[in-house]
Design brief:
286 residues; mainly alpha; two-stranded parallel sheet; 12 helices; 73% helix
């Protein structure tokens, strides 16, 4: 008669994992909703001081480029008194809908570290103690990279896009009157896209851990990566070379940093394997 295999009491079934994941998702969603409610209450500040700030010529980015142009001695649209466009709502529920969705996106951006924390709590029990030890700074580093990307998107990509598209005219007979959803969508895309792009080192770290990426592969396909970066830069920026280069440069720097991170991960894995082999050979001798 076959012996009955005893089940580890600490081992979770597939349904248990799904239940655990469900609660992590619920807590993450609640955090986003709570922060979103706060953003909704202070929507006046969110829209006037943050969302619509890049539409005003006193925005820090415009002042910087204006001073740079003045120093060089050239004329620039960044030195204008006002951007030649207006923002309006063309539907009955346009402003209310914009307020709701903006509050949700603010909740996601501000609550990003907590969302990562919930993800980490779900994943970390499946890691070895050494892996958890080396990954302690995951939430801090991933959050820092995300917020760096958000700030880069807000202070560089968004104003460049708004200035270029807001001043572009096929004819003086055509007025630029942008719908509120179009303007907010432009700012949101710039901010979120850059925040995600800046997570590249974290993605490479985990891909290297599972053996899908190596420094040699990244070096071999560097030219292809350059083309992809330029394409992504063209998607999230206006169609001018300067803006694309400004976005592409930090992403390429992150790509080089990712190659270094991949090397470090492989060295640690090699040391770990060598240590395990040494311990195993020592046990055999004894």
């Amino acid at each position: 008669m076959a012996k009955k295999v005893s089940k580890d009491p600490n081992e979770m079934s597939f349904l248990d994992h799904l239940e655990e994941l469900r609660w992590h998702l619920i807590r993450s969603t609640l955090a986003i909703v709570i922060i979103g409610c706060v953003a909704f209450v202070f929507s006046g500040f969110v829209f006037d001081s943050i969302i619509f700030a890049p539409s005003q010529m006193d925005f820090p980015t415009y002042r910087f480029f204006c001073r740079a142009a003045t120093f060089i001695g050239i004329e620039s649209d960044f030195c204008a008194d006002k951007l030649p466009f207006t923002i309006q709502s063309r539907t009955m529920g346009g402003q209310f809908s914009a307020d709701i969705w903006t509050a949700i996106w603010v909740g996601f951006i501000v609550g990003f570290p907590y969302v990562l924390y919930e993800m980490w709590k779900f994943i970390s029990p499946g890691l070895h103690p050494n892996e958890r030890k080396h990954s302690r700074g995951f939430i801090l580093i991933a959050s820092a990279l995300f917020f760096m990307g958000v700030l880069f998107g807000y202070y560089v990509v968004a104003p460049l896009s708004i200035n270029f598209l807001g001043t572009y005219q096929v004819s003086e007979l055509v007025l630029n009157e942008f719908d509120i959803s179009s303007f907010i969508g432009s700012v949101r895309t710039s901010v979120i896209a850059c925040g995600v792009l800046f997570e590249l080192p974290i993605v490479i770290y985990f891909l290297t851990k599972v053996g899908l990426v190596t420094p040699e592969i990244m070096k071999k396909y560097r030219k292809i990566a350059l083309v992809i970066v330029l394409i992504l830069s063209a998607v999230i920026t206006p169609p001018d070379v300067t803006s694309q280069i400004i976005v592409a440069v930090p992403v390429l720097i992150l790509y080089q940093v990712s190659i270094y991170i991949s090397k470090v991960v492989l060295k640690r894995e090699a040391k770990k394997e060598a240590k395990q082999k040494a311990e195993a050979s020592g046990l055999k001798k004894t």
